[in-house]
Specification:
3 helices, DUF4169, mainly alpha
Length: about 70
């Protein structure tokens, strides 16, 4: 009938440690990208945008212009 003796102070500390680790894991998933990873993504997006703009034909598909104006150009 006798169970194991549990030190409540150690139990509370262990529980707090587990809770902090769970919170840290959530934060790593939400905010875990480093500055280098963010700048690399930005650079790759800018390069892709420039490459796309370089392949664009002038006057054929200018955004914001009506279709009738495109035929005249």
């Amino acid at each position: 009938m006798s169970g194991d003796v549990v030190n409540l102070r150690q139990f509370r500390k262990r529980q707090a440690r587990v809770e902090r680790e769970k919170q840290a894991e959530q934060n790593r998933m939400s905010f875990g990208r480093t500055k280098t990873e963010k700048s690399l993504t930005t650079a790759l997006n800018e390069k892709a945008s420039k490459t796309l703009d370089q392949g664009r034909l002038e006057g054929l598909a200018a955004p914001g212009r009506p279709i009738a104006d495109r035929d005249e150009a």
